[in-house]
Amino acid sequence: MHNLATWTQDITTVLAQPPGQPQLQALTHWLQRIAPVDHFALFLYEGSHAPLPLFHTFPAELRTTFVNDYRSGVHILDPFFLGCLFGEPDGLYSMRALSPDSFRCNHYFQAYYHRLGLSEELGYFTTPALHCRAVLSLMRGEGGEAFTEEEMRLLRNAQPVVAQVARLAWEARGEPAADAVLPTTHVRTVFSSFGEELLTRREHKIAQLLLQGYSSQQIADQLRITRGTVKVHRRNLYDKLEIGSQAEFFGLFVRELMGAGLFSRPQRRNRAQQRVEG
């Protein structure tokens, strides 16, 4: 891959394929020559719809976990999805680098990611069109080695090709549903307002940080309060939301995002009048 002529010839071969599955298949074969990868997956995030799997290399026995379970709602906790949602620029990212907490302590890992049996995952963030983001994931299975600095350098150099192929795949995908709404209109609104009618301002801020995967210590450092104070606020917000665990907290957020959360219930909205300034 150090030979410029070979590199250029390989790119030409990839782009010569028909857009969509043939071109994506050629792209993954090319990337495999840069750095060995066990699985590839290209998910499209457009509107309020579930992520659209434009391409993947999972065998049949893994598709339910890697594709169906991911699309069922857990994707809203995915650091790659959140990175796209909140404006990370196009480029190559590591799952570990985007996760704000110790990765194995992150709720996304505990609730879903550990079942994938991956040792490392990289993601190419691309923007195929306005209000549309796509991520091509490169996954190494359990026991796999970390990507080397040389592999990372070569993979970063491949970003323009990945972006072009993803854009062409987006164009070839067919029309999205007519009732699509922008993620910035829906998900960001739910994220920013989640719990605010029942919680104090400080509790609401802590709830937002929890949704992003921050630990109690990291929240304490960011807000310049003690870890014990964070735990008190966390216990209070759990009580007000009538939940008892982090899993229930994230489940409540998912239901709110889908329009079936507690904040749509009139009797709970009445309690907003009791909100205490914090």
TrEMBL record:
Entry GO MF terms: DNA binding
Q: Where is the HTH luxR-type domain?
A: 192-257
Could you list this entry's UniProt keywords, alphabetically sorted: DNA-binding, Transcription, Transcription regulation
- One GO BP annotation of this record: regulation of DNA-templated transcription
SUPFAM superfamilies for this protein: C-terminal effector domain of the bipartite response regulators
Q: Which superkingdom is the protein from?
A: Bacteria
Give the protein name, as stated in the record.
Answer: LuxR C-terminal-related transcriptional regulator
Organism listed in the record: Pseudomonas solani
